[in-house]
Every structure is written in structure tokens, then in C-alpha cells.
Amino acid sequence: MFSTTVTVRGYECDANGHVNHAVYHQYGEHGRTETLRDLGIEIADMTAAGLGPVILETTVRFLAELRAGDDVDILLDLRFGEGKTFRMDIELRRRDVVAATITGTMGLLDHDTRRLVADPRGRLRALADPEGVQLLDDPDDSVK
């Protein structure tokens, strides 16, 4: 499982003093981007290859408040199956409390055809650095 940490900034909070709902999606996006970087893939590399990541579905479950100054661990599980889509599921944790879960279905968009590529794992593997390729080839289909 991949992880990174952010600190809640005051302007991310609403009138109730907790993180605004839309910011949870931004934390998820940060986790997705950092996961790609951990694989050795920059967004510019994907763009140069005529590809872009797309979110097809995302659901957030709010379980506990996040407030200004909280350190939030973003834990992301990347899973591939058969077909054009893959999963990027996220837990947002404040210390040992799960504050939210974000489930997401993703794809890779071919910029020329405006369609999803048939083998997103293979296309990411082609862009990843050697260590990233090893993570993408994990036998249980999950980045650890």
C-alpha cells in the first residue's frame, strides 16, 4: 500500500471547523498523483505518451472529522483486474483513526482516440521506472 501525508490547512475547513467535503477528493487526487510518482511516472510523461488518468467513479465515506492542523495519512491501494479499468482505493487516517474512505474506478484515456486504453497496467508499466515496474507486477495486483 502506498502512503503520503498532508497537513490540513485552515482554508480547507468550512464554517463547522472541519475539512470541507470537496477537499477529501483533493486529498485523494494528491494520493493518486503521488502513487504514480512513486512508480516513476510523472503526469508530463503520461501526456507525452498521449495518455491521461481519468476518474470514472469515486465515492467518499466520511467517518471522523479532520480539522486544521491534523496530519492526514493518505493510504492508497492500487489494483488491476481484466479490462480497461483499475481501482485506486484510499483511506484517510488521522493517527490510528480512519477519517474517510474513498473508493475509485480509474482508467487511462488515449488522447487521440478519446477512449480508454485496453491494458492500463501494461501502459503504465511501459512508462514506469524499473522499481515501479516491480510494484506494478505484484502478484496480488496491489501496490504495497
Gyration radius, rounded: 16 Å
> Please, what is the average pLDDT?
91
Structural class: alpha+beta
Q: H/E order of the elements?
A: EHHEEEEEHH
Q: Uncertain regions: pLDDT < 50 for 5+ in a row?
A: none
Number of helices: 4
Biggest β-sheet: count, sense, barrel? 6 strands, antiparallel
Give the CATH class.
Answer: Alpha Beta
Mind explaining what this structure looks like?
One of its GO terms (molecular function) is hydrolase activity. InterPro entries: 4-hydroxybenzoyl-CoA_TE, HotDog_dom_sf. Keywords: Hydrolase. It is an enzyme of class 3 (hydrolase). This is Thioesterase family protein. By secondary structure, the chain is of the alpha+beta class. The protein has one domain (2-135): Hotdog Thioesterase (Thiol Ester Dehydrase, Chain A). Helices cover 27% and strands 38% of the residues. The chain has helices at residues 21-38, 43-48, 120-127, 130-136, and strands at 2-7, 51-62, 71-80, 85-94, 97-110, 115-116. Strands 1, 2, 3, 4, 5 and 6 form a six-stranded antiparallel β-sheet that branches. The chain is elongated and about 45 Å long.
Summary?
The chain is an alpha+beta fold. It is built from four helices and six strands. The model has no long low-confidence stretch (mean pLDDT 91).
Question: How is this fold's topology laid out?
Answer:
Layout: E1 2-7, H1 21-38, H2 43-48, E2 51-62, E3 71-80, E4 85-94, E5 97-110, E6 115-116, H3 120-127, H4 130-136
Antiparallel strand pairs: 1-3, 2-5, 3-4, 4-5, 5-6
